[in-house]
Amino acid sequence: MSTVIMDGKALGLKIRESVKAKSAALREKGIVPCLAVVLVGDDAPSLSYVKSKEKALAEAGMESRDIRLPETTSEAELLSLIGELNKDEKIHGILVQSPVPKHIDEDKVTVAVAPEKDVDCFHPVSVGNMVLGKPGFLPCTPHGVLMLLREYKIPVSGANVVVVGRSNLVGKPLANILALREYNATVTLCHTGTKDLRSHTSQADILIVAARNPEFIKPDMIKQGAAVIDVGINRVPDPSAQKGYRLCGDVDPAVEEKAGWYTPVPGGVGPMTIAMLLQNVLEAAQRRIEK
User: Fold this and answer.
1) Do both 96 and 156 map to the same domain?
2) Domain count, the chain
3) 65-78: per-residue pLDDT in tens?
4) Residue 1: its pLDDT value, please?
5) pLDDT tens digits, one per residue of 47-58
6) Of residues 7, 22, 117, 120, which has the active-site annotation?
7) I want to staple 143 with a disulfide (CB 3.0 to 4.6 A). Which of 132, 220, 260, 276 is the partner?
8) Is the peptide bond before 173 cis (omega within 30 degrees of 0)?
């Protein structure tokens, strides 16, 4: 059996087109899905991420409330702003770009965002709903992984799933979601304290890697025919590249010869993250109508 390359770019585009159509339908009812995007400071990567999100929102027929604050903004000022955004009925989602300046407690910022506008699924209430399988938003990157598994009809129920990486953004959410009765997988969560990582990864029917470690999963670490989902995206020096670096994942591309399914980097999980953010903003607007 030849390896199936999981095209996140194509699937992400399909989801974005669906969101665009549903957003247009809401506009006819006088509702314009809107995301408030708050950036404190002038961190270059953060600014780039914010611009890409704002472009995607515009392409989907949504509005972006673009809020730029100076590095010197106090914690109290930021929390006050979030409080105002929470009360603004024309704003359906709030995204405070991370990281915030060091003098601001990021946990306080996370808790300040109203759960019904928490389209990143960072608030403890959002996380609790996710773990319990209750209605609510799912974090964007994990949700993108789930959509890829569904699109490519990869059997999840009863599967041995190994997640490498225990971040609050990807690893922990995925492990919790896939263990829910809805997905019914047997999940092993590996991390830097795991002994003999290969003994776990080589038994995985589905291997999901989000460890921020360039190309460290090698072909001898995976099971023949496994689905390998590479969430990592790393910049590694490459003098032959125009920018002096290249992008790579946490999985050695050589595993493609052994895997049954494989997500390339770039073009795999990455495009799904922004697509699912748009989906969350749309759902937030729809829920506002229902209320």
Assistant:
1) no
2) 2
3) 999 999 999 999 99
4) 61
5) 888 889 999 999
6) 120
7) 276
8) no
Average of per-residue pLDDT across 265-278: 96
CATH assignment at residue 167: 3.40.50.720
Asked about 250 being catalytic, the answer comes back as no
* Residue 48 φ/ψ, nearest 5 degrees: -65, -45
- Mean of all residue pLDDT scores within the chain: 95
Is residue 2 pLDDT above 90, yes or no? Answer: no
Confidence of residue 100 (pLDDT cuts 50, 70, 90): very high
C-alpha–C-alpha distance, residues 204 and 160, integer Å: 5
Q: Three-state SS across the chain? A: CCCEECCHHHHHHHHHHHHHHHHHHHHHCCCCCEEEEEEECCCHHHHHHHHHHHHHHHHCCCEEEEEEECCCCCHHHHHHHHHHHHHCCCCCEEEECCCCCCCCCHHHHHHHCCHHHCCCCCCHHHHHHHHHCCCCCCCHHHHHHHHHHHHCCCCCCCCEEEEECCCCCCHHHHHHHHCCCCCCCEEEEECCCCCCHHHHHCCCCEEEECCCCCCCECHHHCCCCCEEEECCCEEEECCCCCCCEEEECCECHHHHHCCCEECCCCCCCHHHHHHHHHHHHHHHHHHHHHC
pTM of this structure: 0.94
Known catalytic residue at 97: yes
Task: Indicate whether 225 and 263 sit together in one domain.
Answer: yes
Domain that holds residue 235: 140-270
Give the active site residue among 7, 22, 53, 258. 53
